[in-house]
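Hey,

Quick one before I head out. I ran the complex with nickel (II) ion overnight. Inputs first:
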Amino acid sequence: MALLPIIKYPDPRLHKVAKPVAAVTQQTRKLIKDMSETMYAAPGIGLAATQIDVHEQIVVIDVSETHDELRVFINPVILELDGVEESEEGCLSVPGIYETVKRANRVKVQALNENGETFQLEADGLLAVCIQHEIDHLQGKVFVEHLSHLKQTRIRAKLKKQRRETL
Ligand code: NI
């Protein structure tokens, strides 16, 4: 089992834009395995490769309570967004911070799976929110960047204080 270190906001590496995966290989599948183990151990419901400092378009998600519905999205593209929903989000790169974000409540996404096969998925609710949150990561965007500048400043100060207290 390989747990990968998760980079924390406001680390500038979280703002790198991920490149598409050219070919899904054994190495990609090894990375996906490590990413999902890292996500489950955290514990979290989603992880983008950006968060482990790999700037390729790979996302793992499992929003099930039983942690046995792993979904893999390689080179994901959002085809449709519909509706509006506000929900509370958190992020493994922004520990201890939960804030309400407005997003679409239905999403249609196309991606490759771990075997390099194209699939489409229509999602709503928590899964739809999670897909948008993780695809944001691949584009170099952290969820707190949907919030006001004042809130972002407060969150950065709070995280700085947390880090000082854990040293
Ligand atoms: Ni996140």
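The mean pLDDT is 96.

Talk tomorrow,
K.
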